[in-house]
Design brief:
It holds the Pfam family TfoX_N. Helices cover about 35% and strands about 30% of the residues. It is α+β, with helices and mostly antiparallel strands. The chain has one domain (about 5-85). It is globular and about 30 Å long.
């Protein structure tokens, strides 16, 4: 697997507004962005991969652009994929990052 470098660039640019430290790591065949070693959001092929706290999963799964992260053929707990339709704007990218950051902070 490879990841779309333009999407990764958009995430990097969006992360600049957050007064927190993020690191990058190759994960799941793509690039993930971690906050205090906790995965928040990443890019796998053309999709965002986002960590989401459990109580928000059901609502997010109702969105057309969201599906379970199931590259192992089984849905991973608290992980979703978001297709390109779900992050056309910078504001949408920010929202996904914020959800991922919420998950990371919840696990600290």
């Amino acid at each position: 697997m490879t990841c779309n470098q333009e999407i990764a660039k958009r995430i990097r640019e969006s992360l600049r507004v957050f007064p927190r430290d993020f690191t990058e790591k190759k994960m799941f065949g793509g690039i993930s962005f971690l906050h205090h070693r906790k995965m928040t959001v990443g890019v796998i092929k053309e999709d965002l991969a986002v960590r989401v706290i459990s109580n928000k999963m059901e609502g997010l799964m109702q969105l057309d652009a969201v599906r379970p992260m199931d590259f192992t053929k089984t849905a991973l707990k608290e992980f979703i994929y978001v297709s390109l339709e779900g992050f056309k704007t910078d504001e949408q990218v920010q929202n996904w990052i914020e959800l991922g950051l919420e998950h990371a902070k919840n696990k600290l």
